[in-house]
Amino acid sequence: MTEVIGVPRPRIDAPEKVTGATRYAADGWVHGLLHARLVLSTEAHALIRAIDVEAAREVPGVVAVLTAADLPTATDASDRTAEPLAREEVVFAGQPIAIVVAETEAAAEDGAELVAVELEPLDVVVDVEAAMAPGAPLARRPSEGAGGDLESIHAGVDHGEEDEPAEPLSANVLGRVRRSAGDVAAAFAVSAAVVEGTFRTPWVYQAYLEPQTATAWQEPNGTLVVSTSTQGSFVTRSELARAFGLPEDRIRVVAEPLGGAFGGKFALIEPLAAGAALALGRPVRLALTRTEDFLSMNPVSAQVTHLRIGALEDGTLTGLEARMIVDRGANAGWGLEGITSSLVAGPYRWQAHDVVGYGVLTNRFTFGAYRGPGAPAAAFALETLLDELAAALGLDPIELRLRNAVVEGDVAISGTPYATIGAVEVLERIREHPLWAARHELPEGEGVGIAVGHWPGGNEPAAAVCRVDKDGTMTIVTSAVDMSGVSTGFAAIAAATFGLEPEKVRVVLADTASGPYAGASGGSKVTYTVGTAVLRAAAAAREKLLAAASEELEIAPDDLEVVDGVVRAAGAPDRSITVAEIASKALRFGGRYEPIEGHGGSAQTSGAPSVAAHLAHVRVDRETGEVAVLRHVVAQDVGRALNPALVQGQMRGGVAQGVGWALYEELVHDEHGRLLTTSFMEYAIPNAERVPEIETLIVEVPAPDGPFGAKGIGEAPVVGAPAAIVNAVAAATGARLRELPMTPARVWSALHEQTR
Amino acid sequence: MIPAPFRYHRATSVEDALEALREPDSKALAGGMSLLPLMKLRIGRPELVVDLGRLELAGIERADGAYAIGALTTWDALSRVEELRGEGLEAIADCARGIGDLQVRNRGTIGGGLAHADPAADMPAVAVALGLELVARSAEGERTIAASDFFLGPFTTALAAGELVTAVRVPAPPPGSGSAYAKVEHPASGFALAGAAALVTPAGARVALTGIAGGPVPVADPEAGFGGIEVYGDRFAGEEYRRHLARVVVRRALERARARAEGRGS
Lengths: 756, 266
What we know:
heterodimer; A: alpha+beta; Aldehyde Oxidoreductase, domain 3; Aldehyde Oxidoreductase, domain 4; 3 domains; seven-stranded mixed sheet; six-stranded mixed sheet; B: alpha+beta; Uridine Diphospho-n-acetylenolpyruvylglucosamine Reductase, domain 2; Uridine Diphospho-n-acetylenolpyruvylglucosamine Reductase, domain 3; Enolase-like, domain 1; four-stranded antiparallel sheet; 9 helices; 14 strands
């Protein structure tokens, strides 16, 4: 019998991807296709006084220059779906103001540089803390309506209590979330040690390889079709329906193979391409350049976290007090304050806590999600202070964490009980690693740091269809977007459930017109939710198979087993019939059996958080402040590794992005709110030379409701990685950095302070 | 990312290139690693691009105690050339090896790079420290410009309009010399936050810095420091930090050059 679950296999789309054959969103062709280029705001906050499009219209090849008034939008809301082009007020530098549409990309670009926009500057809000003070200039004039329902995609955490502000705050503060229980002051009073600090993380870009791209056209029957690089086809369809006042059945969204997204591809570009196509009645493609993508899309929020924690002599954690400020940029719709204020408690037990999260408007981007949104910043603060607490108490840092790690049955500060959690297991696994034992015997300038990160995971109902063909192969149909190899996981789940070799399973990722419902790919939920639907669809098809085989073999279904595509009597394998034979008998004129097909759905309600523990080994050049990560070890509870190769890929990718958070990545504006880091010449990411050897330790604490025990694992491995590197730098040098990334200049300054 | 419209001419000979470059607003294209990005961002908007790619200007020759490096010799070729390994010329390969990434080193050329004169480029510091000379040709004839006279400021050189760098002359240092290049680079661009080239000969040491000012800066007396030099600062590396880095890379380059001169280092 072919072992399926737990066996590493290549991604089913690997050959086409590594040979460059995959057709991404910018590669398809539509007859009569026009190309679009954006005109972006050069001011961070301004009123549009005039847009002169005449010179651009005269460029040969330019078909149209569209402004907000030309798009057939249907609402007055001022979020980016409803207002793809700024109407009157510009709220960040890089906001799209006009679209030039032309027969060629070159003509569109020639036209775009001739569009003259007259802007009347308004007060620019770039300092998130100053923006909160009463009387501060407003980042956006007060208005009605902010739409969208994107937050629920990302994490299964509640939004806390909407607390009545007891403090005077400016109207820039759009969100205020408070979570509290117990008496924090009393908890600190009995503590043997209390530590605190203020921690800053910057705006960070998702840096997907494929810039955002969408192509839109109308079918002869009027249906709007959008072929796009997106994480969610159904949510994009709903957003387009809202933007243009169209019924959902008049919109078809086709999610093309995704060239990376990491949380950043949710219905931002589609309204621009669709608006232009609807306005002109011709197919329009908008494929952003890298610089346009940097300027106009939606990186993740900067955060400021004031955190204070305490513990008793024996290391028992007592109180947690946090004030967390999230820079939403100009995103009035939602903020990360709900998620981050929940995650700052970490996977630990607290006697009392008082956490307040603020979502504040500024004139920087409109924020979006990025792999574990709000979590790396929270873990950076907490895991740094846990190390300081351990030092103050003379305890081993892993021991301190183990004493307080949550176990099954504990309740998170969000109020959600942990049904399954492997915090203790990953900490024990990392403690056994030789690197931890050797940490005191390293050369001068080197150090090892430990940190933990977790992600609660999200849920959303989903369905899948399973079909068996006459040749005995299977097709799984879902509408999930494959962001991280999930379809290879679907094939394994279906094969193992049905009794087929995984090579015989095809996975079709359908569009919104033809596939069963699946939510967006985000929140580490696809394998947990859609995978469960796939399992049930395969099980339903298997029932059809056994019913037919039972008649053919004259054996009761319960006495049959399916092994590698053969149905046979359990215990008497010579009495058998192949899946192909049964399917052939069903799929023909006059056939006697129902097609071997099944439909499965899931509506998960339990959470299956994933937790990862990290060891980072760094070397610090004390003279220049440069930090090199020499080695990184990550132990993650994944529930069950359906395909260990894919799981390890997620763990390595998370760590690599954590190296970026720790050392390199930072979007920087000038004091006027204009972006200074507009290309990879200014914005550093961890390239192949800078990502160290990453050792992956898979820990399996099964999720009761996950397919074969699997948990959602994509986001957890990034969360604790930056904090581990911060703690390693502290171990190497004694310097504790409170701001990410730890650039050479910041590290040098911190070391310089020590010797002053 | 599409350049503004321009005309293109593929030069068939140096004379042909020089003739074409008489046109105002023309630009010579060598490896294209600096010119093409500027054109794609529409910061550079030449009317005419004269492609030197087919000219036979690559390679290294030795004559009269000096080397002549063809202007179209790539960074990658420079980092591998055996002739430049000894005799105090090690800094050239040190430097070439650390420029950009492999794709850039496969295309970018020494002539194009020096003529571009990016203030944070690496090779100008080596050119000044090692006393390189640039051979410039124009329709009027050929002249030789010392590196110390060549760099006038950011993206500005002593080249006249219509003049083309065809070769770089490398005087062979006396026996018992060693050289080195050391830098701390920006993690995104790879350009030097501070870079130092040092040549140590039996007669003494010569050092030049890059990345800290508008062009390569000779350091008269490295032991005395360089307090008089105006150091540039930006949000990634402020003036004080950059000045500190300059001290560090000067010391590292000198130590390595000295070790090589004494036959110790590699």
